[in-house]
């Protein structure tokens, strides 16, 4: 199965590496070009026991890829995990602007999104429901593929 993980921090990189280890083809995407370049060189930006070996092996074997282009990563993928930052908003709640921006790009560009998930518990069903209602017109024009 082809998966896309957006974000290469503690959640995204570990998620991508573990799914790749299970035999999936995973593309991890990040807007930080320097971080992506380091990952391609085998330099892991975070510490998690055993992560170096998982990333190195799966990258070398072609199951784990890194990109700065979500559009490129979406080619052939129908499952998307959003693992981008959710800094605190002014009122202390999670600021979902980055999560929803990625979700909007996926909805706009994906030929078929079977699963759209976020790691952050601050992304409530109500948040996604409101977002999907906002996108309803786009969804109605898209051919059914799932």
Polypeptide structure, described:
The protein is α/β, with parallel strands linked by helices and 146 residues long. The chain has a single domain (2-141), classed as Rossmann fold (3-Layer(aba) Sandwich). Helix content is 44%, strand content 15%. It has 7 helices and 5 strands; from the N terminus they run E-H-E-H-H-E-H-E-H-E-H-H. The protein has helices at 10-21, 33-40, 51-60, 70-74, 97-109, 125-134, 136-141, and strands at residues 2-6, 25-29, 64-67, 79-82, 115-118. The chain has a 5-stranded parallel β-sheet with strand order 3-2-1-4-5, sandwiched between helices. Strand 4, helix 5 (97-109) and strand 5 (115-118) form a beta-alpha-beta unit. Helix 1 (10-21) crosses helix 3 (51-60). The radius of gyration is 15 Å and the shape is globular. Mean pLDDT is 84; it is low at 140-146.
Helix content range:
40-55%
Strand order across the largest sheet: 3-2-1-4-5
Cα end-to-end separation: 14 Å
Number of alpha- plus pi-helical segments: 7
Shape: globular
In total, how many domains does the architecture comprise?
1
Order of helices and strands: EHEHHEHEHEHH
What is the CATH topology descriptor? Rossmann fold
Per DSSP E runs of 2 or more residues, the count of β-strands stands at 5
Throw out a few tags for this protein.
5 strands, disordered C terminus, single chain, about 150 residues, globular, alpha/beta, Rossmann fold, five-stranded parallel β-sheet, 7 helices
């Amino acid at each position: 199965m082809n998966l896309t993980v957006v974000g290469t921090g503690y959640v995204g990189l570990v998620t991508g590496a573990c799914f790749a280890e299970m035999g999936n083809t995973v593309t991890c995407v990040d807007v930080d070009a320097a971080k992506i370049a380091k990952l391609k060189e085998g330099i892991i930006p975070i510490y998690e026991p055993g992560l170096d070996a998982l990333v190195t092996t799966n990258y070398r074997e072609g199951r784990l890829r890194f990109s700065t282009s979500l559009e490129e990563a979406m080619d052939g993928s129908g499952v998307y995990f959003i693992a981008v930052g959710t800094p605190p908003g002014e009122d202390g709640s999670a600021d979902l602007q980055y999560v929803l921006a990625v979700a909007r790009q996926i909805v706009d560009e994906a030929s078929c999104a079977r699963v759209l998930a976020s790691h952050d518990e601050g992304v409530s069903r109500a948040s996604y429901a409101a977002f999907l209602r906002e996108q309803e017109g786009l969804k109605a024009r898209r051919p059914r593929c799932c």
